[in-house]
Write a structure and sequence with these properties.
This is Tetratricopeptide repeat protein. This protein is an all-alpha fold. The chain has one domain: Alpha Horseshoe (Serine Threonine Protein Phosphatase 5, Tetratricopeptide repeat). It is built from six helices and no strands. The longest helix is centred in the first third of the chain and has 22 residues. It is globular.
């Protein structure tokens, strides 16, 4: 039974990844990405796609808020968030915040474990 559930989970993740690849081909203004990610928020790949879509469409302020929140609370996408935050801080010329916030996020992440 456990193996069946694991196979089913893997199949769904594969479906999700393929759907996300197709969604990334839509225009960046498309509400479909937001809708899809909201409906599948429990999956790390959906959260990663939403982060990327915010950055891609140039909504840096919203991306910054989401990335900082996820970096603090979401261990499954922490590494992706930290990398995206560093890049976003550099784009926004927030070097001093980059160093402090990344260190703070890493420390918070480590102390949770």
């Amino acid at each position: 039974m456990a193996q069946h559930l694991q196979e089913e989970s893997y199949a769904f993740e594969f479906y999700l990844e393929q759907s996300l690849k197709l969604l990334m081909k839509f225009p960046k203004e498309s509400p479909l990405i937001h809708e899809f990610c909201t409906n599948h928020w429990a999956f790390p790949s959906a959260r990663k796609l939403y982060m990327k879509s915010l950055i891609k469409r140039g909504d840096r302020e919203q991306a910054l808020i989401l990335l900082e929140e996820l970096a603090k609370k979401d261990s499954e996408v922490f590494t992706d968030c930290a990398i995206a935050l560093k890049d976003l801080y550099l784009q926004l010329e927030m070097k001093e915040k980059d160093d402090g916030r990344i260190k703070q996020s890493v420390t918070a992440f480590i102390t949770k474990k």
